[in-house]
Design the sequence.
């Protein structure tokens, strides 16, 4: 982690950058991470550059790693051939999903389209399933990851009412279903489930009894009212809402390097997320 000498904070950054920095801070040294595509790729890449270069990392297509790709490069997808040469193991999806099934994944990051107050997610349809307004890409392996990871962190790049719904039209990836013991009663292991939701505005966590998401911590220059106004249910708030530290200069430099690498690899980032990329920290 950062030393005291490195605790020099950046004063200009986007909410998207703050989301990635907060996500990278959630990683622990001994985590075995199931790494999914999109923003989780960026957050885990940053955690390796900032803190743990030997982080144990499992990728859905069947690859296991405990060291950086050489040369260090952002893969363009979970099937990028650059992932292969220095991997510990090359198999297929069944191999790595069996690691999930055995309960060995301590942390997983997933990004999603729409989420509800119990951490359930919809990446399948907008509107009725049989006659949708839009069909979304679907869950891929996210359903298994959400069902079996011990700690699951959702990343949402936009915190708005259309993305934070009280009730979903369709559940692609299970959170705590209807709250309380409903997840366990449905057959999911009792030591699994969402731990947090990280957005450009805040970090939400889940009540240990009701399993409902509540506001736990605010990103800098964000208010409780701002989060509540952009959440489509009556959001509960912790008694002592934490204030998250701004990104350090080192964190933002690594974040922007990662974002530039991602753009080079054909990731699509919105202009408001990349506004500071070419500016000095």
Sequence:
């Amino acid at each position: 982690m950062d030393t005291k000498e490195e605790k020099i904070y950046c004063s200009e950054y986007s909410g998207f950058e703050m989301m990635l920095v907060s996500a990278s801070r959630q990683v622990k040294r001994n985590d075995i991470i199931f790494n999914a595509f999109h923003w989780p790729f960026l957050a885990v890449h940053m955690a390796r550059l900032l803190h743990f270069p030997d982080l144990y990392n499992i990728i859905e297509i069947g690859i296991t790693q405990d060291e950086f790709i050489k040369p260090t490069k952002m893969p363009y997808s979970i099937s990028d051939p650059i992932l292969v040469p220095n991997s510990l193991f090359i198999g297929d999806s069944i191999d790595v999903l069996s690691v999930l099934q055995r309960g060995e994944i301590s942390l997983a990051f997933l990004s999603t389209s729409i989420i509800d107050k119990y951490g359930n997610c919809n990446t399948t349809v907008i509107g009725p399933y049989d006659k949708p307004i839009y069909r979304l890409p679907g869950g891929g392996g996210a359903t298994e990851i959400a069902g079996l990871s011990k700690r699951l962190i959702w990343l949402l790049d936009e915190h708005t009412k259309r993305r934070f719904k009280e009730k979903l039209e369709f559940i692609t990836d299970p959170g705590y279903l209807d709250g309380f013991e409903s997840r366990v009663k449905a057959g999911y292991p009792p030591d699994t489930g969402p731990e947090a939701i990280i957005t450009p505005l805040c970090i939400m966590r889940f009540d240990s009894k009701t399993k409902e998401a509540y506001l736990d911590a605010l990103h800098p220059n964000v208010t409780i009212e701002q989060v509540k106004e952009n959440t489509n249910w009556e959001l509960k708030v912790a008694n002592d809402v934490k204030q998250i530290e701004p990104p350090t200069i080192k964190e933002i430099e690594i974040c922007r390097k990662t974002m530039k690498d991602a753009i080079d690899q054909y990731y699509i980032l919105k202009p408001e997320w990349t506004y500071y990329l070419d500016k000095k920290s």
